Amino acid sequence: MLDGDLENSEEQYQTALRSHLLIVDKLIDLHNSKLKGLEKEFERVYIYMYIYLFMFIRIYIYIYIYIHRFVANRPAQLEAQGDREGVREGALFVV
Description:
- The protein is mainly α and about 100 residues long.
- The chain has helices at about 1-70, 75-80.
């Protein structure tokens, strides 16, 4: 009788252990799939961030070039023209 109970208990233990390991494997698979999704989302956001940073730097360079090439040289051009166009002294743009 004790022999039969011991075998029955061992069989129940093995069944419970297999069931537990299957559930743990499913949880690990779920965790890994969620982690892969988060990695893809991070890569997507990182790529967009890098693109926006590149665009910002490009616009900043264009503005810098515009200011230094056109606006900064404008008073010297106006002084060279003198009063031919009726520009008051110190103005940046021709009115």
